[in-house]
Amino acid sequence: MRTAEIITAKGTMKVSFFEEDAPGTVGNFVKLAKDGYYDGLAFHRVIPDFVIQGGCPYSRNPEDPRTGTGGPGYTINCELTGYNQYHDRGVLSMAHAGRNTGGSQFFICHSRKNTSHLDRQHTCFGKVFDGLEVIDLIAQGDKIEKIVIHEEKD
Q1: Sign of CA dihedral 83, 22, 100, 87
Q2: Domain coverage including residue 36
């Protein structure tokens, strides 16, 4: 079982992954995190009572007009048929510009109230199990200091 810590100046969010439901998406996120891809990137999109979104490489520079449009240089397929494909509070989901166009951008849901329309449209691949309050503290421009992946043997 793998978990992650998303470390920010506002606190740390601990994440468990939906490895059975979204193995490709989890694998992609874990690889990028281990490679340091997310270190220093901003949450470039924060919509209260909806989501916080990060993972765009252009967000390192707050003046870059391309912020919100970047990715890792490749795309991954959506994984939408698993059991855990519901956008509840704390759920991590892959952002995309259309089916099968995701790569590195992800969002974390504030609540279920305004996210149900995303179910089975965006791949849910994990959930914050500790540090939920940090989601509410994140403001647009706040940086991801580091994402640490923990590999635990069964």
Answers
A1: positive
A2: 2-151
Per-residue pLDDT tens over the stretch 2-55: 999 999 999 999 999 999 999 999 999 999 999 999 999 999 999 999 999 999
The helix (H) or strand (E) run that includes residue 8 is strand 2-8
Domain tally for the chain?
Answer: 1
**In which residue are the tokens 């995701």 written?**
102
Contact at 8 Å (CB) between 7 and 134? no
Q: In what order do the strands lie in the sheet with 43-47?
A: 43-47, 51-54, 106-109, 91-94, 124-130, 11-17, 2-8, 144-151
Residues contacting residue 98 through CB under 8 Å, at least 6 positions apart: none
pTM of the model: 0.96
Task: Output the DSSP codes for 71-110.
Answer: -SSS-B-----STT----TTEEEE--SSTT-BSS-EEEES
Which CATH number covers residue 10? 2.40.100.10
